[in-house]
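User: tokens in, sequence out, please.
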């Protein structure tokens, strides 16, 4: 594997004991340094299984799973000095304050960590630093969980549904923080069911179905690939607003379309690219 890759997974197969079929089958993908990669798929598709293998928490797989240019199994405990993990279910101590939690976790690392108050401030929790976590809302616990993942300034961060339980303003704050991490060179491996979120922040996504990734690419590329080559035009007519569709090919010579433009009747125009929701359904077969 190239040492330039942050993650390399090739022909990964994993079957849980007693299961009749593998959860992962010939799973292959790569993650470049400094990119945000989204692994998308329905519940039970194997997203968490993939993460646990990459974190060194699951053994007994075949194929290759490598991080930082080395097999996961060979990294040992040193792996946890370089990765940060924020699970969907917060892993924090409820009877401690937010600051006490971060100070406790900071003591687990061999290197110096970031100032806990600075990390709390980055997710708008500085005012709650001395509050016991059992008094936190779910969204606050999720943000504290993210602080734990970022405390030691890791090279690679695993995020599982990072905005669960958060209101739109807090979700925006979290997405901005993720993008800021990318700007600093941090690699993000994200799993989420929020397709709008994945579209906004991911450089590339892979749809996990049947134990492998049949569809992968940047959100923009995939939306164009799976969309229709049409332009939807909304016009203001006497009877109200009307929508019409025109084929993109040769639209500059389409007399009807040009007539609407000339008459000043066009209110809005939109190309008919697919949404990530549409691609999710087509790639995974869920809901079909």
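Assistant: Sequence out:
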């Amino acid at each position: 594997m190239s040492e330039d890759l942050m993650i390399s997974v090739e022909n990964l197969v994993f079957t849980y004991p007693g299961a009749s079929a593998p959860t992962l089958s010939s799973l292959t993908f790569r993650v470049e340094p400094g990119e945000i990669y989204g692994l998308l798929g329905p519940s039970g598709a194997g997203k968490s299984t993939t993460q646990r293998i990459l974190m060194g928490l699951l053994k007994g797989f075949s194929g290759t799973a490598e991080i930082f240019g080395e097999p996961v199994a060979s990294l040992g405990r040193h792996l946890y000095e370089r990765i940060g993990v924020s699970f969907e279910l917060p892993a924090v101590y409820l009877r401690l304050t937010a600051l006490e939690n971060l100070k406790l976790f900071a003591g687990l690392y061999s290197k110096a960590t970031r100032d806990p108050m600075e990390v709390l401030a980055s997710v708008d929790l500085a005012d709650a630093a001395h509050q016991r976590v059992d008094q936190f809302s779910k969204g606050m616990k999720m943000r504290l969980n993210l602080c734990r993942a970022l405390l030691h300034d890791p090279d690679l961060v695993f995020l599982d549904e990072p905005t669960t339980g958060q209101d739109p303003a807090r979700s925006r704050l979290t997405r901005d923080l993720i993008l800021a991490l990318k700007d600093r060179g941090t690699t993000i491996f994200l799993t989420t069911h929020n397709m709008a979120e994945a579209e906004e922040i991911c450089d590339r996504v892979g749809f996990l179905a049947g134990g492998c990734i049949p569809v992968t690419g940047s959100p923009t590329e995939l939306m164009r690939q799976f969309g229709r080559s049409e332009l939807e035009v909304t016009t203001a007519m006497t009877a109200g607003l009307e929508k019409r569709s025109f084929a993109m090919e040769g639209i500059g010579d389409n007399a009807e379309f040009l007539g609407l433009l000339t008459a000043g009747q066009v209110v809005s125009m939109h190309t008919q690219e697919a949404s990530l929701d549409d691609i999710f359904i087509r790639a995974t077969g869920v809901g079909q």
